[in-house]
Prior knowledge:
The complex is a heterohexamer, with 3 copies of chain A (112 residues) and 3 copies of chain D (442 residues).
Chain A: E1 2-8, H1 13-22, E2 28-36, E3 42-46, E4 49-53, E5 56-65, H2 70-81, E6 89-95, E7 98-101
Antiparallel strand pairs in A: 1-5, 1-6, 2-5, 3-4
Helix pairs in contact in A: 1-2
Chain D: H1 5-32, H2 38-64, E1 69-70, E2 74-75, H3 103-121, H4 131-154, H5 166-171, E3 173-174, E4 177-178, H6 188-206, H7 222-241, H8 249-277, H9 282-296, H10 305-322, H11 325-329, H12 337-355, H13 375-404, H14 412-417, H15 419-424
Antiparallel strand pairs in D: 1-2, 3-4
The complex binds adenosine-5'-diphosphate (ADP) (3 copies).
Amino acid sequence: MKLVTAVIQPHRLDDVKAALEAAGIRGMTVSEASGYGRQRGHTEVYRGAEYTVDLVPKVRVEVLVESEAASTVADVVVQAAQTGKIGDGKVWIVPVEDVVRVRTGEHGAGAL
Amino acid sequence: MKLVTAVIQPHRLDDVKAALEAAGIRGMTVSEASGYGRQRGHTEVYRGAEYTVDLVPKVRVEVLVESEAASTVADVVVQAAQTGKIGDGKVWIVPVEDVVRVRTGEHGAGAL
Amino acid sequence: MKLVTAVIQPHRLDDVKAALEAAGIRGMTVSEASGYGRQRGHTEVYRGAEYTVDLVPKVRVEVLVESEAASTVADVVVQAAQTGKIGDGKVWIVPVEDVVRVRTGEHGAGAL
Amino acid sequence: MELDSGNAAWMLTSASLVLLMTPGLALFYGGMSRAKSVLNMMMMSFGAMGVIGVVYVLWGWSMSYGTQSVAGIFNNPFESFGLAGALLDGDGNYVLNGFNYPVVIDVAFQVTFAIITTALISGAIAERVKFSAWMIFAGIWVTLAYFPMAHMVWGGGLLSGSENSLAAAIFGVTDGAANVAPLDFAGGTVVHINAGVAGLVLALIIGKRKGFGKVPMRPHNLTLTMLGAGLLWFGWFGFNAGSAFAADGVAGLAWVNTTAATAAAILGWLVVEKIRDGHATSLGAASGIVAGLVAITPAAGALNPVGSIALGIISGVACAFAVGLKYKLGFDDSLDVVGVHLVGGLVGTVLVGFLSTGGSVFFTAEGAFGFGGLDQLWIQILIAVVAVVYSGVITAIIAIAIKATLGWRVSEDVESAGIDLAEHGESAYEGISAGRIATEVK
Amino acid sequence: MELDSGNAAWMLTSASLVLLMTPGLALFYGGMSRAKSVLNMMMMSFGAMGVIGVVYVLWGWSMSYGTQSVAGIFNNPFESFGLAGALLDGDGNYVLNGFNYPVVIDVAFQVTFAIITTALISGAIAERVKFSAWMIFAGIWVTLAYFPMAHMVWGGGLLSGSENSLAAAIFGVTDGAANVAPLDFAGGTVVHINAGVAGLVLALIIGKRKGFGKVPMRPHNLTLTMLGAGLLWFGWFGFNAGSAFAADGVAGLAWVNTTAATAAAILGWLVVEKIRDGHATSLGAASGIVAGLVAITPAAGALNPVGSIALGIISGVACAFAVGLKYKLGFDDSLDVVGVHLVGGLVGTVLVGFLSTGGSVFFTAEGAFGFGGLDQLWIQILIAVVAVVYSGVITAIIAIAIKATLGWRVSEDVESAGIDLAEHGESAYEGISAGRIATEVK
Amino acid sequence: MELDSGNAAWMLTSASLVLLMTPGLALFYGGMSRAKSVLNMMMMSFGAMGVIGVVYVLWGWSMSYGTQSVAGIFNNPFESFGLAGALLDGDGNYVLNGFNYPVVIDVAFQVTFAIITTALISGAIAERVKFSAWMIFAGIWVTLAYFPMAHMVWGGGLLSGSENSLAAAIFGVTDGAANVAPLDFAGGTVVHINAGVAGLVLALIIGKRKGFGKVPMRPHNLTLTMLGAGLLWFGWFGFNAGSAFAADGVAGLAWVNTTAATAAAILGWLVVEKIRDGHATSLGAASGIVAGLVAITPAAGALNPVGSIALGIISGVACAFAVGLKYKLGFDDSLDVVGVHLVGGLVGTVLVGFLSTGGSVFFTAEGAFGFGGLDQLWIQILIAVVAVVYSGVITAIIAIAIKATLGWRVSEDVESAGIDLAEHGESAYEGISAGRIATEVK
Lengths: 112, 112, 112, 442, 442, 442
Ligand SMILES: Nc1ncnc2c1ncn2[C@@H]1O[C@H](COP(=O)(O)OP(=O)(O)O)[C@@H](O)[C@H]1O
Ligand SMILES: Nc1ncnc2c1ncn2[C@@H]1O[C@H](COP(=O)(O)OP(=O)(O)O)[C@@H](O)[C@H]1O
Ligand SMILES: Nc1ncnc2c1ncn2[C@@H]1O[C@H](COP(=O)(O)OP(=O)(O)O)[C@@H](O)[C@H]1O
């Protein structure tokens, strides 16, 4: 099994969720993150004091999938999340040795 | 070494923490997440406009363990987190190549 | 490729960021976390009722790097984040099978 | 004629209360907007305080009140420009008004009405408008729409009961006053219909937010909204009971009617929600408060307390339904200025014709329950219609002019990223949970 | 008898101030609850405003004040139902009261007391009660417990100093008034003991929150709580100084005493915390404020300022200890209505018997320091006891009736997930940090 | 001499309004600090309410006002210790003052000024000071710096217009009053220069926060700050219009001038920001409000409304630039007490010499536009300089004494982790997003 992790623009989340659903993915875990990269941050001024904010809001999406589906899922995410502007984010794939569904204790593919 | 990651119901965290302690685990990292899956979200109405909230609050627990302990730890978490209701979450195991304790620079099992 | 994950003290983030930049790393993803370990939490009292807060604030930094750079990057982080006090955190390395840049669809090292 | 310090005390208090309503409104609106635009939302109110606080002193008072009315529509702005000549008599003493308190306190009271009325409009165009465009609009609108309306209704103009009013033309005059005078106790037309129509016109001309009706635009902090509603209710006592211009029985009646109607409107709104949506919401309670306060505004001195309860329930129910209209009709009146202020203002203005205890559909001129004639109703409808038309036309002209020159909208990217950052260079809340981190040691 | 516009002005202001206390209380309580139940907590206050704002006009005033007392316990609710006949005399002029301001302003002032008293109770049963049950309770409780108590103490009933009072029975009558009259300046019995006992009874009958005493139930936002405490202090000037019913020296004294006692109570509470827990907390300061305000309420016109400081310190210290009791005794008075309002109300009511400058344990009837007798103390204890018993019995009956019919509690699942969502279909804050994401582009 | 209940009503209201300013300030300051120190910031205000509420009753009033002046610098603290003998005459009636309301209401009004002035200082030393050190400082500073200054300016002392004043020494005396009297309507010297200088001295003696000027110290919640600014504006009507000590034309003028200057200062500040930084910020609007309010404080009764607009613009612009100075000069006046209160206070105090309509650089003694002499300007500068020196010296002595004994600072670790936790054992907000989790089922 694999874990596909995507760090994307927050406003693409709805589309990514829809695309994954369309691709038959039934679950995912989402969390907030901040990204640092080529995308420029911005400057804020408070009473004349400038602050540079170079961590920009991102959303992390994690999807556990069967090994053979991993690269397809990554492609689905990339397609749905792409705007073509700097800062669109990254998707990566990590091997997973086992998955358990907490509710039932099922292991492996059946746990997804 | 392995990384055991669990996405669980927020209100099970205390029990999971206690169970891990009882199992001799001395550390863990916890963070907020939102889950999407079989568990139904809910509807909120603001001035007549309905909003569907289909991401439900979850907590992510990460535990670094020695390889041989991984599946035991996963079982401990599953047991402590289980309520039997849809939405109890997932636990998964990922291989880890190295761990360092920041304070001392120790590597490997000694870093845990 | 590898994913280097560090859980560090929040106030070391700036230094870690600077050190990584100095080491030629161009991107990272940051998120909030809470840690449980040797570091003691604290007690809060509200109208005479005591609460023990044993999860302390941490920051998680994730850096995707080429395989050969992983241990160097881990060292850079450890050095920059170290204060020598209990609770400095952990750094670990996980194998990554593929990375995609969402904006372009590039795979592998070129996606970093 | 001697100074009545009790009246003066109450009017100083009332002016202060009404001034507080605008920060209260900023919170009420701010809580309903998204976290990324809350500062801009609040700044529209605070900016209005800045612009109108200055403008009112310069020409606002003079355009509203004075002896040089231009066709009953507005007064000569230069008659007492900068308040010159308006406050002191020849001997340097403070001029008293008919309620025996200094006219300068009237100025205090009136400037607060001009501010809150303009600020109300901003709810219709939340999260998408250039701050500079808003500031310019505020200054022009208050000048061309608000001051004239205040003059028409309260300054002895067309919509008043003076001998040069429409009412006088229709019903005749006795002793220099119309035989049937329109009733607008504290500003149903001048304030609520005026702002509500302006909101509608702006929402139509400026257009919808990106994603309106499709993406979630939930209130980001309902505790702010409830706090705002609480401050509005509190401040509204100055608005309504202060509009008695004296610390007397009428003020007391207005106070009790205000509370009775508002309480009833909460219940009205919540019952609609409970039946229609399954839940009585806190946003509904906060909205019901405002709906009740709006509707009782023109009526506060003219009804009895039981009539006020009836008015409140009707307004709460009506507005609870009216806020849904924008989705059906497809205009983005973001925070329901139309659904609450226009509808509530119309409900109140028209129901006076039914419920006034001084001669209306349900009460005789002597205050007994019974048919008191349709005259009051007709004149109430008339002033409402004139107010709608006047405000609509003037607002449209101003809005189109701004659209053609400066432009109203920020870019779509700015809307997505949040207008606070782009227009004000700030974000309301610090913390990584908004995707940002404050780091500490260098 | 001519209108005293100064008194009228101050009473209009006071009524407005006391009305603001309920939104202030909503914030005070809301900040102390958890994020998932803050809206429900606030809605219990706003809901009380809705119900009681209507009920008071209909039968509340009539049950409290009038000429048709039923056994000194309550007045005939139909004597001036809907305020009919209470506001205007035969000629249509506003009836003035003994302080020469219109009675309609008294109505304004009194309705706000009924609202805040009822809202206070909600703190005892936070986070677990059906909103519908609360709304029904509010309407019944205010009718059966509050209006009678107001009649008994302020309306010339059993606990007043009238010739038909208990005090008259005990101490005899001179010129139609009891020789020793109970002192309850602004509502130690009617408001605080009444609400405190009701809170205790409800907490016992309704039961604990799931996990009470075991799982953390920390205040989710202490800035709200402090803001609420600030608004309560501000509003309390209307409550206490307004209870002079005139803008005079007594009002001024009540104002100064209120501030002195409250300041002292802050210090008292913080010193206890510092010694006992090691830290002086902001929740302690906010709580000390309320403890001081509660205790000075019955005493504000009867003490001198130094006596008020003493009263404040005692109340701050006493309440700081009293809030811990619930854990030992095992009842879930969630936000300490008992520990603050019942205890503070008793402290204030009883200490009047020691500190009143008009004859008490420490002051002679002439106001000099010295023994002035025990009579005042006995009568103070008596009214406190009667209030406790009356409120306790009535509340228990109502609470048990609701339990048996509608039921009080939401389900355990709803408690876990948060009552806001289940009862109001809302959540207070938007943002992924509450496990939720607002997404934008479709 | 009969009680003027109208004046009494307005002064009771004004006292209440000014009391509210301190919770307002707590929010204003609290929103600007970081989330980990917001409670401590607010507690400095609430703590000042506790200490000074008690101290003022005991010896504050007596040190400020009375018949036993010590060298025109302060009054004998024991003359009316605990207010004994100050409130009632021999017959037990309330003593009236020259405005025919009871002196006890003056006490109410004045205690609120002492509280807010002291609380203002805390902004200069945010996020790094032991709470105990602050509480002790508050009690000593108000005694040695504030009460004497109040006596000097308002109690007939050195900086007043009495026959024993500096002004009398310089300009001579007619009928027991200086021929040219210094003007400080509501407290430019006593309140703002006093607090501003104290803030500067403390910031220098206590030193910078760890990382000042290097690490981000962004406001954590600007909605709180804006709410605070709104409450300050509202409360300031009591401060300024209340300083007329009557409900009359002067009070009305002060009200209108306060609003005009504040509105203008918002615009002034925002224009500077827009030009200099590219954005008009909400923090700028909130700051402009305070800058305008501060500057109009000494001038509110002496200018005409157009003059007030000019004053407001100047103050807004001046303060917008002044808040940047601390970075250049390297002192950590954390929330700009110097940049806003000292600078604004000086602007207002000095501009009175130019803009007073009773004889100044721009107005003749008859109020016409024209040169009215330099005397007023000189005396204004003089009182400002004396105030600066007096406050500076006294504050330095107190601050050094505390440094040498108790010590001011918390440890660097505490500063990093957040002072709320260490000093108060609390954190303002619950939620994992602050790295904390509330867990529920055991
Ligand atoms: N080496 C990296 N490791 C982890 N996350 C990264 C890395 N580089 C970029 N990211 C994440 O991807 C986001 C987008 O990267 P950025 O360089 O700004 O644009 P792009 O990917 O379009 O070239 C960043 O904000 C960060 O969250
Ligand atoms: N394929 C997946 N990848 C990652 N996380 C998942 C996946 N499926 C489910 N989850 C997580 O597990 C949680 C519970 O899943 P759900 O399908 O609702 O219930 P259950 O696991 O009991 O069948 C989800 O809320 C989500 O956080
Ligand atoms: N086994 C573990 N798995 C995951 N995270 C851990 C583990 N042990 C510690 N951590 C993380 O590292 C942080 C520091 O650990 P701690 O034991 O307090 O100090 P130190 O690493 O200096 O010995 C913890 O707060 C937690 O976030």
